[in-house]
Amino acid sequence: MASLPLELINTCAALLLLLSFAMLSQRRVLTQVDLYAAQGLVLSVSIFITAWSTHQLHLYFSCGLTLLLKVLVLPLILRRLIHRLDANWETETLLNMPSVLLIGLLLVMFAFVLAQPISELATTLTHGTLGIALAVVMLAFLMMITRRKAVSQVVGFLAMENGLLFAAASTTYGMPMAVELGVGLDVLVGMIILGIFLFHIREQFESLDLSHLESLKED
Amino acid sequence: MTGTHTELLGAVAIGGGWLAIGVLGLLRSHSTGWVGRALFPFGSLLGIALAAVGIIALAHGVETLILPIGLPELPFHLRLDALSAVFLVLLGATAAGVSIFAAGYFRPGEGTAPGLLGLQYHVFLASMLFVVLADDALSFMMAWESMALSSYFLVTSQHRLPEIRKAGYLYLLIAHLGAAAIVLSFGVMQGGSWQFTFEALRAAQLTPAWASMVFFLALFGFGAKAGIVPLHVWLPEAHPAAPSPVSALMSGVMLEIAVYGLLRVNLDLLQVQVWWWGLVTLGLGLLTALYGVLFAAVQTDMKRLLAYSSIENIGIIFIGLGLTLIFRSFHMPAFAALALAATLYHCLNHAFAKSLLFLGTGSVLHATGERNLGRLGGLIHRMPWVAWLALVGTLAIAGIPPFNGFVSEWLLLQSFLFTPFIPREFVNMLLPLGASGLTLAAALAAYLMVKFYGIVFLGQPREAKLAQSHDCGRLERLGLLWLASACVLLGIFPAQTLALIGQVGEELLGATTAPPLWHGLLFAPISPERAAYSPALFLLGIAVFVGLTMLIVRIAYHGRIRRAAPWVCGGFPLTPRMQDTSEGFSQPIRQIFEPFFRMRRELPSPFDAAPHYRVQIEDRIWHWLYVPVVVSVQWIARAAGMIQRGRISTYLLYSFVTLLVLLIWVL
Asked: Any CB–CB contact under 8 A between A118 and chain B?
C-alpha cells in the first residue's frame, strides 16, 4: 500500500475543507468564484491521484471532466454573469460571520461523527476522507442559507455538488461514468437556468437581494 | 348460465346506441332542432327497448359476457341477472319518458350548447346502464365514476351562476368521498385473493369483523350517492341547480342506482351476514325519511321541496333494505323476499313518480320563469295537461290508493308486521316502532304533497304574469303522459309486477312472494288470511263513490256560482293575497318539529305600515357536521401557512434541518 498517494489525497481533502471555510467567510462574490475554481482544481487533482494509484481508467475521464467544467467553464460563466449583472458587491450575511463559522465548525464535527461508521464499511484506499466530503456538502448548504444574494446561492449550490463528487470518489472510486456525465451535464444546465433566473429576478425587483422575493407571498 | 346472450347483448347495444347518439349530437352542437327534435326521441325509443329487454331478461336466467376490452388481466365482465334486470327496466322506462320530454324541453341559448348537453346526458344514461351490468369491480367503478362526472357536468350546465358552481362542487366532493369508500370496500371484500371479478368477490372468505368493514364502507359510499342523512347535503343543492330533465334522471334513476349498488353488495357479493347491519340500515332509513320529509315541508322553492322529498323516499327504500337484511340474517327468507319486493317496488315508484314531478316543475318553470312557491298558484287553469298529469305523480308520492306509492308502502308495512316473529328479544319489540315512524313519514309526505300541489296548481294566481303562462308542448306532454301511465299501471297491477320483481327474491334469497289470486285481481303477498289488496276493486269503489257524489251534487245544487269569502258575508271578491301561502301552510310543521330546524325569524312590529315577515331555515346537520370540518381544514391550512415565510433562506433551512434530523436518526 503506497502511503504517498494517501497522504496526498488527505492533503487535498484538507485543502478542500479549508477552501469551503474560506468560501463561507468570503464576502466578495468574484473571490468566491475564484475559490470555487480552486476547489474544483483541488478536487480534480485528488481524483487524478486516486486514478493514478488505483489504475482506474474512468477516473481519468472524471478528472478531466471536473477540470474542464468546474475550473474553466463554470467559473467563466459565473464571472461573465457577475460582470453583466454588475453584482460584485460585498454580500451581507444573515448572521454575523463568527457565528456562521462556529456553526460551520459544529457541522464539520457532526459530519465526522456521521462518516465514522460508513467509512469503516468502505474498502477503498481513501475511505478516511468521507467525513470531509460530507462536511463540504454541509458547509455549502450553510452558505446557501446564510447569504442574501442570489449569486452566492448559485455558488453554494455548485460547491455542494463538489462535495458530493468528492464523497463519491473517496468511498467508491467515483460513480459509474454515465452517472458522472449526467451529473456534469445537470450542473451545466442548472447553471444556465439559474443564470436566466437571476436576470429575471433583477428585472423584476431591480436587485438581486432575495429578501424582495418575500413580497411574492400571499397573505 | 344459458348459452345465448341475446338480452345482455341487446342491453350492451342500447348502451352503445346512447353513446352514439351523444356523439352524433356534436355534429351540429348548436342546433336545438337537430339535438332535441331529432336525436332525443331516438334515445327515448332506446329507453323503451331497454325496458323491454329488462322484462324479457326477468323471465330468463342469468347471462354473462366478457368484453374484449379493459385491463390485460381483468377484461370487462358483464352479467345480467334478475336484480340487474329490474333496474334496467327502471332505467329504460324512466329514461324513455324523460328523453322524450327533454326533446321538447331544451330551448336555444340556455347555458351549455345543446350538443354538449346531449352528449353528457347520453353518457350519463349509458354509464348508469353499465353500472347495472358490471360484473367486476373495475368496470363497475369506471361506469360509476363516469356516471358521477357526467352528472356533475349536467348539474353545472348553467355554470356562469356562482351558486350553481358551488352546488356542483359540493356534489362532486361528496361523490368522490363516496367513490373512495366504494373502492375501499371492494378492496376489503376481495379478502386477500386480489381477484376483482364479482365471481371472486362472492367466493372470498371474510371474518365478520372485516365483513362489517365492507358493509360500512359500502353503506357510506352508496349512501353518499343515494343521499342518506347526514350525507344528503349535496342533494337539495344539486337537484334544483340542474335542468329539470336532469333533475328527474338524477332523482328518479341515479339515487336508485346507488340503492342497486348496496343491494348488490349486501345481498349478492357479501356471503357473511351480521344481524345488526339491518338495524343500522333501518335506523338510518327512518332518520333519513323523517328528516327529508320535515325539511321538504318547510321549503319554498318547488325543486328543493322535491329534492328533500327524494331524500325521504330514499329513506323509505333504506327502511325496506334494512328489513330485508334483518329477516335474511335470521333465516326468514319468505319475509325477506317480501321486504325486498317492497324495496324494489318503491324504487320503481319513486323513479316514475319523482321524475314525473320534476318534469312537471320544469314545465312550470319554463312557462312562468318562477320556482318560488310564493309566486305561483292557480296554474291548473292555464296548464291543464301539466296539472292533471302532475296530480298523478303527487298522489303516487303521497301514497294514495289506487296509485303505486300505496302498494309499496303497504307492502313495507306488511313486512313490518312480521318483525315480532324475529327470534331475538328487544329487536322484536323495538322494530314495530319503526312501522310507526314509517307511517309518520308517509303521512307527512301526503301533507307535503298537498302543499306542493295546492300552492302551485290550485287557488288563484299569486302574480299577474301567471295569466300569460301556457301549457307545455306536445313532446313534453308525451313524456309526462308516459311516466304518469307507468305510475297508474304499477298501481293497478301490483300482482303482475310483483310476479316479475319476485324473480329477484327467488334468485338472491331463494324465496318469493305468494302468487296472485282470482286471476290477478286480488293480491296477497303472504296469505289471503293475513292481508290482501285488490286495486281494481278499490278503483271501482272510488269511481262509483266519486260518480255518485258528483251526481248527487249536480242534482241537489242549483249551479249558480258566486265566489265570495265566507267572512265577508258574500260581499267582496277573493284576492290572491287571501289564500294560504306556502309558508303559512307549513307553519304547523315548523312549530311541532321546531328542534329539527335551525330557524331565524324576523317578525314585523304591529305598527309597521309595510310589514315583512322573514323566516330562514337551515339544516342543523350542516352546522353540526360540515361546518366544523370546514373550520378545522381552514385552521390546519392557516397553521401550515405559518411555515410559508416566503424567504428562500428559511426554505433552505427547512431542507437542511430535515437532512440533519434524518442523518441523526440513521446514526
From this structure: no
